[in-house]
């Protein structure tokens, strides 16, 4: 087949049409990607609205890498909520399903009094815990509202330094485990514990 | 003439060839998304939009796309439309975007869309393809919403998110419950459409058999009379 014959063949026509369609589709997607871009700020505002049910103002808090890493998880982001003075943590807890490698990421609102700048912050409890995402947690749907609400119902024990455990029938008062999802519960408890540990060590200047 | 043609295309998409209840297409999304009426309705409308856009574009390009590469070309067009829809939903309706989760990108491989592109849009003019896309999409939306309403009511005791009953039967929120409701809906839909079709045919046969008083009796050579001669007891032989 000569070059001339190739350019007149059906194979070339098919290829050319397909390439044209792909190029136009790519161009269209690129234009719309720009037009419908969602900034990080907009994403944060949406998350805040879903957590608080209204629009609130939040200031990001910068932490060092060392302050973000903990034995059972890590802190992804921290925000100071200007409206009520509380702190919002996005944390990822490890120890979930799939040989302990699965993770659960949660948003935790830590209620407090005082200010970080004045060095008189005191933890008064957890206001709310909201699910964000997970990795490999097949039974995450078993973690119902009741499970997440439990974190906000034990302020007295948190003030005295307690942490949550996903142990069924354990001796502690902060045992929180969802039926049929004990490993996902473990990762979720770890995520909340990371937020508590970070607040107690970094913000309150105590020991985890 | 045209109204009749478009009416028939619409009737086919909505009832005669209902993608969910008659052709049993797009079952993955049907079972996965029908846990609540709102999600089902949202999924149905999303598929309708993609069907409309992809049918129109494929119909416009039907004389340009060579037969040998038509399937890859259709898939690229459908995938582009789905990606655009994802962007729009994420920007303007984030709640629905979150609720649809993995089923939104999976619209690309929904056999209803590729099926209509291959069977209708690639062979018919633009307006016909647009009507077919909307009708098929609305037929699917209707079917999904019905299944979603039943599953939500029995599984969660609510109707479009509003709590109306205290009871809940967990079975209906599971995959097994989805199959059960789907099967029952298909059976009822086929039963109803068959009864309607039967009644319509019987009425048609009666009209052919009994001429009105003002009209003279048809001659034995007329085609209508031949058809009438082939009918007994309202059934067409």
Topology, element by element:
The complex is a heterodimer of chains A (208) and B (237).
Chain A (H helix, E strand, L loop, with lengths): L2 H6 L1 H26 L4 H13 L5 E4 L3 H4 E2 L2 E9 L5 E10 L5 E12 L8 E14 L9 H6 L4 H5 L22 H22 L5
Antiparallel strand pairs in A: 1-3, 2-3, 3-4, 4-5, 5-6
Chain B lengths: L1 H15 L10 H7 L3 H24 L9 H23 L1 H7 L10 H11 L4 H31 L1 E2 L2 E2 L11 H35 L13 H7 L1 E2 L2 E2 L1
Antiparallel strand pairs in B: 1-2, 3-4
Helix pairs in contact in B: 1-7, 3-4, 3-6, 3-7, 4-5, 4-6, 6-7, 7-8, 8-9
Question: Would you give an account of this structure?
Answer:
The complex is a heterodimer of chains A (208) and B (237). By secondary structure, chain A is of the alpha+beta class. Chain A folds into two domains: 3-36; 57-203, no CATH class. Chain A is built from seven helices and six strands, in the order αααβαβββββααα. Chain A has helices at 3-8, 10-35, 40-52, 65-68, 145-150, 155-159, 182-203; strands at 58-61, 69-70, 73-81, 87-96, 102-113, 122-135. In chain A, a hairpin with an 8-residue loop joins β5 and β6 (122-135). Chain B has 237 residues and is mostly helical. Chain B has one domain (2-204). In chain B, the strands form two sheets. In chain B, strands 1-2 form a two-stranded antiparallel sheet. Chain B has a two-stranded antiparallel sheet with strand order 3-4. The longest helix of chain B has 35 residues, at 175-209. Chain B is flat, with a radius of gyration of 22 Å. Residues 225-237 of chain B have low confidence and may be disordered. The A-B interface holds A 10, 13-15, 17-18, 21-22, 25, 28-29, 32-33, 36, 38, 46 and B 61, 64-66, 68-69, 72-73, 76-77, 79-80, 83-84, 87-88, 90-91, 94.
């Amino acid at each position: 087949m000569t070059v001339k014959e190739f350019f007149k063949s059906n194979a070339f026509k098919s290829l050319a049409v397909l390439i044209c369609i792909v190029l136009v589709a790519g161009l269209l997607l690129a234009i719309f990607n720009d037009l419908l871009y969602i900034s990080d700020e907009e994403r944060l505002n949406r998350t805040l609205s879903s957590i608080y049910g209204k629009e609130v103002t939040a200031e990001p808090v910068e932490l060092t890498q060392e302050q973000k890493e903990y034995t059972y998880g890590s802190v992804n982001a921290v925000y100071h909520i200007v409206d009520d003075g509380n702190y919002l943590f996005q944390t990822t807890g490890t120890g979930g399903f799939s040989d302990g490698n699965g993770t659960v990421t949660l948003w935790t609102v830590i209620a407090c009094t005082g200010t970080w700048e004045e060095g008189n912050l005191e933890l008064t409890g957890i206001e709310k815990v909201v699910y964000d995402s997970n990795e490999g947690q097949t039974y995450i749907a078993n973690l119902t509202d009741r499970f997440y609400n439990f974190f906000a119902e034990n302020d007295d024990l948190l003030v005295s330094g307690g942490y949550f455990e996903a142990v069924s029938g354990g001796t502690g008062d902060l045992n929180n485990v969802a039926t049929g999802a004990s490993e996902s519960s473990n990762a979720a408890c770890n995520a909340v514990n990371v937020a508590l540990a970070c607040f107690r060590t970094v913000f309150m200047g105590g020991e985890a | 003439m045209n109204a009749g043609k478009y009416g028939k295309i619409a009737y086919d998409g909505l009832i005669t060839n209902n993608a969910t209840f008659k052709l049993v297409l797009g079952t993955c999304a049907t079972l996965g998304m029908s846990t609540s009426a709102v999600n089902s309705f949202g999924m149905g409308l999303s598929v309708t939009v993609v069907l409309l856009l992809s049918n129109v574009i494929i119909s416009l390009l039907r004389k340009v796309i060579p037969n040998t590469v038509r399937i890859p070309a259709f898939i690229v067009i459908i995938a582009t439309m789905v990606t655009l829809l994802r962007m729009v939903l994420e920007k303007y309706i984030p709640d629905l975007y979150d609720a649809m989760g993995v089923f939104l990108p999976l619209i690309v491989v929904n056999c209803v869309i590729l099926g209509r592109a291959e069977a209708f849009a690639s062979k018919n003019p633009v307006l016909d393809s647009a009507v077919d896309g909307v009708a098929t999409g609305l037929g699917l939306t209707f079917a999904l919403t019905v299944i979603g309403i039943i599953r939500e009511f029995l599984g969660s005791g609510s109707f479009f998110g509003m709590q109306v009953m205290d009871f809940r039967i967990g079975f209906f929120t599971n995959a097994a419950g989805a199959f059960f409701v789907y099967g029952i809906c298909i059976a009822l839909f086929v039963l109803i459409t068959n009864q309607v079709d039967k009644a319509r045919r019987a009425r048609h046969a009666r009209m052919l058999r009994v001429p009105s008083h003002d009209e003279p009796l048809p001659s034995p050579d007329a085609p209508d009379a031949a058809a009438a001669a082939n009918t007994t007891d309202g059934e067409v032989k």
